[in-house]
Amino acid sequence: MFDKFKCCAPGCNKTPLSLIIDGKKQSFGGYCLRHTADQEEATRDFYKYIMENDKIVGLNVAGITFDGMEKFDLTDKRFYGCNFQHCIFSGIHSRHLRSRMCSFDFCMFMDCNLLESNMQFTSFAGAKFSHVLFTGSDMIQNNFCGLSSFQSSFDDSDLYNSRFIKANLVDTSIRNCNVKKALFNSCLYNNVSFRLSNTNEAIYDLADKDIFTKDDDETLNLEK
Question: What is the pTM of this model?
Fold first, then answer.
């Protein structure tokens, strides 16, 4: 896992940028992105490291912006115990991204296609999705609490035992998904579709029963 030490700047509670190469931690003076002397150089170094490595462990790039216009591609990348908190992902088009025990808390994803991803035990708490596609993904036992999702899709995905507590879902599609044991408590819904998902296996507030049962005649009874 990434280090949870604090930035060396006085009064800063953020975690410092770092990466692990051959089992040894490489830091940028012990500072977070905001207090790093040359933010552009640090960002380029992390871009280069991610593009040149397929398996990445213990990376801490909190606060960095990843822009697809820079030809940044996450296809077939494998991340383990990495910290992407408060990062911005814009215009990323990738397939088969793999993530285990990573944190994308309070990230912003805009106009991204992360198709057929495999992300487990990963946190998106407080994240924002705008025009994001996770179609055909395995998103098992993930944390989506406090998520804000706008015009995004989880279609054809496995969301087993994931948590969407207090999520705000707008124009979001969760069709043909396995939502067994997935928690949808205290959520806000606006034009959300669970069509063909096994909503009878999901956990939700009784007040939202109509949202989860309106397509019962077409619901799949998927077994985990």
Answer: 0.90
